[in-house]
Write a structure and sequence with these properties.
This protein is an alpha+beta fold. The chain is about 35% helix and about 35% strand. Strands 2-3-1-4 form a four-stranded antiparallel beta sheet, covered by helices on one side. A hairpin with a 4-residue loop joins β2 (about 35) and β3. α1 runs antiparallel to α2 (about 50-65).
């Protein structure tokens, strides 16, 4: 099943731009997922398991490398805007 997810990150630190850029770069490293970045969020489109795996791995990686952050997600299982 295809899905679309929208993810926004809000690092809990004064210097917030580097962690956001790093998370976007990390999301772009996953094969098989279409990643599009906008001013306020990044959209991931792909197979459900691949998108959820990318989000899960990125959250753990972000916490290990940058500490506490708030992530806001919108998940639309079964939605592929290209079909």
């Amino acid at each position: 099943m295809k899905m679309t997810a929208e993810l926004s990150m809000y690092p809990l630190k004064d210097d917030f731009i580097p962690p956001i850029k790093a998370v976007i770069e990390k999301l772009n490293s996953f094969a098989g997922i279409q990643v599009t970045t906008f001013a306020t969020a990044t959209t991931l489109i792909g197979e459900f398991d691949e998108v959820m795996n990318a989000i899960s791995q990125t959250l753990v990686w972000s916490h290990e490398n940058y500490g506490m952050a708030v992530f806001v997600a919108k998940l639309i299982p079964g939605y592929d805007p290209e079909s």
